[in-house]
Amino acid sequence: MVKTAPAHDPQTPPVSAPAVHYLQNLSKDIPSGLVVFLVALPLCLGISLASGAPLLAGVITGIVGGTLVSWFSGSQLSVSGPAAGLTAIMVSALATLGSFEAVLAATVVAGVMQLVLGFLKAGIIGMYFPSSVIRGMLAAIGLILILKQIPHFFGADTDYFEDMDFLQFNGQNTFSAIVAATNAISWGSALIGLISLAVLMIWDSKAVKSVAALKLVPGALIVVVLSILLNLLLTNLVPSLQVRPEHLVKLPSIGSLADLTRELRQPDWTALTRGSTYLVAFTIAIVASLETLLSVEAVDKLDPHKRHTPQNRELKAQGLGNIISGLIGGLPMTAVIVRSSANIDAGAQSKFSAFFHGLLLLTSLLVLSSVLNLIPLSALAAVLLMVGFKLTKPALYRTQWKLGWEQFLPFIVTVVAILFTDLLKGVCVGLALGIFYILKANLNSAYYFHNEPSHEPGVVHIKLSEHVSFLNKASIVTTFEQLAPGASVILDGTDSEVIDYDVLEAIENFRITAAERGIHLELRGIKQVEALGH
C-alpha cells in the first residue's frame, strides 16, 4: 500500500524511540512503582487463590515480571505479572495434569513456545487490532474494575479480585455479587473505603496538583497509610467497626531469603512424557501471547509520549519470563493492562517503575509482611475504582460517538461483549465487527497503486493509495520506524479517497515523534487527528 522513493541505505538499522534516561525520571518512576506495587500485591494473591495454586505463586510471578521481564521488554510502561484471564486455564490445567508441579513444567514449555513465536515474528498480529476495539477493551476493563471492586469496597467479599469474567467460580456473576454485597456490608470497611475514595479524588484535583511538593507523593500511598491508621483508631475506639481479618491483605509470612527458597515449588519434569502437558502449554502460550499483544497495544495508546512497543521483542520477553516463573514455582504471566494503566495513571515515565514494583514485591515478602497485612482491602479497592473510572470516562464514549458508526459500533460492541463474557471473547467479537466494516468499505473502493517518483532529490516520498485501511497500519508503521535520522519525508495522501482512522492516528503519532528523531516531515492531503488518550 506504500511506495517509498528513494529509501535510505538498507544497511542502516531501524531507528528506535529516543533513549530513556532512567535517572532523570526517578522522581516520577519511584512513586509510580509504589502505586503499582500496592495494586499488584492483592491481585497477585487473589489470582493465586482463584487459580487453585499456592498463595505464593502469584507473588513470585509478579516479582519475575517486574524485575526481569521489564528490562527485556521493549515497552517503557507495561507491567507484567499473573493475569486474571488465565485463571480458568489454570484451574483446567490443574485438573488435567493432576498437580501444580506438572503445571509448572507446562508453563516452562509455554515460555519456550513464546520465544519461538517471537523469533518467528508472530508479534505482527498485534498491529491488526483496530483502535476502536482496543479502546473498547480499555473501557470494558474500566467498567469491570468498578463493578468487581464494589463488593470489596464495602467489605462484603473475602475472595479479593476473584476473576475478571462475568461468570464467577462461586456461581455468581458480576451483578449478582453486587446485589449480594448490599446485604452483607461491613461498615468499618465501607467507611474506610469512602474516606479513601474521597482522599484520592481530592489528591487528583487541580488544587493539589498545583503544589509541586504534593505531586511527588502518590495518592495511593496516602490512602494506604491513612487506612491503616483509621482501622487502628476504630479498633481502639469503636471495636464493632474494625475491619475484619478476612478483609485485610493476606501476605504469607516469610522471614528470610532462605525461607523463601524453601517455599518455592519445582517443576515435575516427568509430566513432559504426557501429551496433555504440551496441549496445556500450547493453550497457555497462545492465550498469554494474545493478551500480551492486546495489552501492549493498549498501553501504547495510553502512553503520553506515544512510544511503540516492538511486539516480537515483547513475546520473547514474556517467553523468558514464563520459563523463569515456571522454574521457580510461579504462575504463567502476561503483560497486564490493569497494572499498566495504574502505572501510567501514576505518572510513570520509564520501565524503572515496573522494575521498582518488582523489587517492592520481593522486599514485602522478606521484611514488610507484618505491616502490609494491616492494609484494608477496601482502601485498595478505592485505588482501583479511580483507575477504572479513568479508563472508562464518559468523554471517551462521546469521542467515539463523534467519530461515526464505523468507530463507535465496534467500540461499544467490544465493551458489552467483554463485560458479559471475558477479555478474549469480547475482543474477538469486536474484531469481527471491525473487519466487517473494512470489507464493506473495500466493496466500494478498490486498491490502486501509484508509482510516481519524487522530483526532490534526497527526499523520501511516501505516497498512499486510494483506500488505506487498518490492515495497512503494520506496513506503514514499519516504514516509519525504518526512516533514518535527519531524513526529509513527504507523506502524500492527495490521491487517497479514504484513510482509516487507525492509520491517521499512526501518522499523527509519527508526526509527534518525528522531531525527536530529527526527521523533517511534510504532510500533503492528510488531515491531522488528535491522538486519543485518557
Structure explained in plain terms:
Residues 449-534 form the STAS domain. The chain has 534 residues and is mainly α. Among the domains are: 23-95 and 130-268 and 326-387, no CATH class; 448-524, STAS domain (Transcription Regulator spoIIAA, 2-Layer Sandwich). It is 60% helix and 6% strand. It is built from 21 helices and eight strands. Helix 12 packs across helix 13 (311-327). Residues 1-19 and 444-452 have low confidence and may be disordered.
Based on CA inertia axes, which overall geometry fits?
globular
Distance from first to last alpha carbon: 31 Å
Radius of gyration: 24 Å
- What spatial order of strands do you see in the largest sheet? 1-4-6-8
Element order: H for helix, E for strand = EHHEHHHHHHHHHHHEHHHHHHEEHEEHE
By helix and strand content, what is the structural category?
Answer: mainly alpha
Residue share in β-strands: 5-15%
Roughly what is the average pLDDT, rounded to an integer? 83
The number of helical elements comes to: 21
Task: List unreliable stretches of 5+ residues.
Answer: 1-19, 444-452
Helix content: 55-70%
- Count of distinct strands: 8
The description of the largest β-sheet is: 4 strands, mixed
